[in-house]
């Protein structure tokens, strides 16, 4: 039986790698076009999250599977949308990627979304046992735990890591989303360089963070990063978004990627590093160590525990962990994930 899935969104690497690499009778429908939006942003916000859209297109899909993209909807709008799904006889599957939205400084809006989606879904999935335990504690629902599929494709997935000089520790600020608190981490790392003659600290930031006039510009962060760079304590790289190819090359130029998160749940960045053999050091705020092998530093009630960060960097430097996905294991994992998704879709359609 062919199962047509309205995936929210469709255009995302996670969603793409849920699909069987050959054929398994599951078809995920392309994102609806958003008038006036570029292709890369067509699903944000997705028209398919509107109640009227569901009623108008109900004969085009069998089951709805939500991942991301509902930030712009209120709890009331989501409830209206769910009511439209119910009235059209369309089951809902929801994967709980984020228990806390990494783009929101305050958790209230995302909590309101979860309070609508989690109790109403016909089936729930998540990526780690820890997240599933939170779902069970907060909403009394069981979520199927499935691993995050690979991010990187072949041939890069099997590419040998190119050699480089020194031990390179990287911190990437990206566009400084709300979940990040990079400067306390960078300050500690910058001071550690003198203890390791060949340690190099590389800090990357997007142009919108570093340049006056951009919405994401942070003058304090920009000034402090440039000051540390001028003092020779870090190597600063300012650029726009990396392409996938550029990002994979960046990862393979690092020995350790440090994630300066002050809150979070899971991480696609961690998955890509695991695909390419780059060790990760993250805070203990989420379930990163359950997701893939990584080192952790502590966040105390007052923020970063500097001693735990220093200890974790020393462990990484001394032991050189080489956690990397085996390509064949990634393929088998993807096949298993695809089979389980099809089984879940079949089950909710059979109710």
Question: Can you summarize this structure?
Answer:
With 351 residues, the protein is α/β, with parallel strands linked by helices. Helices cover 38% and strands 17% of the residues. The protein is globular and about 65 Å long.
Overview of the molecule:
By secondary structure, the protein is of the alpha/beta class. The chain has two domains: 168 residues, Rossmann fold, CATH 3.40.50; 164 residues, Glycogen Phosphorylase B (Rossmann fold, 3-Layer(aba) Sandwich). Helix content is 38%, strand content 17%. It is built from 13 helices and 14 strands. The strands form three sheets. A six-stranded parallel beta sheet has the order 2-1-3-4-5-6, with helices on both faces. The protein starts with a strand and ends with a helix. The mean pLDDT is 95.
Give the secondary structure arrangement, pairings included.
Elements: E1 3-8, H1 13-16, E2 26-28, H2 51-57, E3 63-66, H3 75-87, E4 92-96, H4 108-120, E5 123-126, H5 129-139, E6 144-145, E7 167-172, H6 182-192, E8 199-206, H7 207-210, H8 219-230, E9 235-239, H9 244-252, E10 256-259, H10 268-276, E11 279-283, H11 288-291, E12 295-297, E13 299-300, E14 303-304, H12 306-319, H13 327-350
Parallel strand pairs: 1-2, 1-3, 3-4, 4-5, 5-6, 7-8, 7-10, 8-9, 10-11, 11-12
Antiparallel strand pairs: 13-14
Helix pairs in contact: 2-3, 3-4, 6-12
């Amino acid at each position: 039986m062919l199962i047509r899935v309205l995936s929210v969104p469709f255009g995302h690497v996670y969603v793409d790698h849920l699909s069987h690499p050959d054929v398994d009778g599951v078809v995920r429908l392309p994102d609806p076009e958003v008038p006036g939006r570029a292709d890369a942003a067509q699903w944000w916000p997705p028209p398919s999250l509107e109640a009227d859209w569901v009623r108008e297109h109900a004969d085009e899909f069998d089951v709805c599977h939500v991942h991301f993209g509902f930030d712009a909807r209120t709890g009331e709008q989501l409830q209206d949308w769910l009511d439209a799904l119910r009235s059209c006889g369309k089951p809902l599957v929801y994967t709980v990627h984020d228990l806390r939205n990494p783009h929101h400084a305050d958790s209230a809006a995302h909590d309101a979304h979860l309070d609508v989606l989690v109790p109403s879904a016909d089936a729930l999935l998540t990526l780690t046992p820890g997240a599933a335990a939170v779902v069970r504690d907060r909403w009394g629902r069981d979520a199927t735990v499935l691993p995050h599929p690979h991010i990187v494709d072949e041939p890069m997935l099997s590419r040998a890591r190119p050699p480089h000089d020194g031990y390179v520790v990287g911190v990437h600020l990206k566009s400084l989303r709300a979940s990040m608190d990079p400067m306390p981490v960078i300050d500690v790392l910058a001071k550690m360089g003198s203890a390791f003659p060949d340690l190099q600290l590389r800090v990357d930031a997007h142009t919108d963070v570093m340049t006056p006039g951009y919405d994401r510009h942070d003058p304090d962060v920009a000034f402090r990063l440039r000051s540390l760079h001028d003092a020779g304590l870090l190597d600063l790289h300012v650029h726009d978004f990396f392409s996938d190819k550029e990002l994979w090359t960046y990862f393979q130029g690092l020995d350790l990627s440090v994630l300066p998160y002050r809150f979070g749940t899971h991480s696609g960045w961690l998955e890509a590093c695991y695909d390419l053999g780059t060790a990760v050091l993250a805070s203990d705020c989420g379930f990163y160590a359950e997701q893939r092998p990584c080192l952790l530093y502590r966040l105390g009630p007052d923020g970063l525990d500097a001693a735990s960060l220093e200890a974790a960097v020393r462990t990484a430097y001394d032991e050189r962990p080489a956690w990397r996905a085996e390509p064949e294991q990634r393929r088998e994992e993807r096949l298993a994930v695809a089979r389980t998704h099809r089984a879940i879709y079949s089950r909710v359609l059979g109710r």
